[in-house]
Amino acid sequence: MIIWVTGTPGVGKTATGRELAKRLGIGFIDLPEYVSMNNLYKERLEDGTMVVESRRLAQHLSKHVKGDTVIAGHITVKVRGHETRCVVLRLNPLQLRERLEERGYSVEKVAENVEAEFLGVVYLDALRVFGKNRVSQIDVTGKEASDVVNRCVDVLEGRDAGDDVEWMSRLDEAAVSQLLRYLSTTKSRIL
Ligand SMILES: Nc1ncnc2c1ncn2[C@@H]1O[C@H](COP(=O)(O)OP(=O)(O)OP(=O)(O)O)[C@@H](O)[C@H]1O
Ligand SMILES: [Mg+2]
């Protein structure tokens, strides 16, 4: 079984995935590290982002992953020969903005990721790749890493149905307008 922990950059995939693997006593792969070590990218952009070839990545994983493994990464691919469950970590886009700004990401990159989180882009990707029955979401906003791991385990073991995260309805009106204002001013600054 592969347990794919995914989400927008900065939501806590690596931290959560590593702890989850430890808790379950199974292997762990941090995807950016794996892609870099095995040269599975087409090119490296100026800001360090690796452009990944999904097909090559899927083939490599199919060949090399043995046994139960947690994979943490913001892209998702189907790995042949393994059952997969996927958990999408969702973080309030306003908090994601703070976290990514603290990391020193460019204005453009922060806005791009905040928008992607707001719209649920990674969740949609996961649905497309794995299908609805294999994908669950967890709202990690304000949750400690250990709580997030507990919820992952409950979701995987079928005790917890996960969250139906849709920020437009989940956030209050003030937060949504703050977010929309931020996105429109940032985007008009970039364009
Ligand atoms: N539950 C949490 N509560 C508070 N901070 C957290 C939590 N999970 C992770 N963090 C912090 O958020 C930052 C991003 O976490 P992490 O590197 O695990 O994210 P990621 O999703 O793997 O990011 P990337 O897409 O860049 O690999 C780190 O500084 C981490 O310590
Ligand atoms: Mg990571």
Describe the structure.
This protein is an alpha/beta fold and 191 residues long. Helices cover 51% and strands 17% of the residues. It has nine helices and seven strands. The strands form two sheets. The chain has a five-stranded parallel sheet with strand order 2-5-1-6-7, sandwiched between helices. Strands 3-4 form a two-stranded antiparallel sheet. A hairpin with a 5-residue loop joins strand 3 and strand 4. The radius of gyration is 17 Å and the shape is globular. It binds adenosine-5'-triphosphate and magnesium ion (MG). The site of magnesium ion (MG) has 4 residues, from helix 1. The site of magnesium ion has 4 residues, from helix 1.
Descriptive keywords:
191 residues, alpha/beta, Rossmann fold, five-stranded parallel sheet, two-stranded antiparallel ribbon, 17% strand, globular, binds adenosine-5'-triphosphate, binds magnesium ion
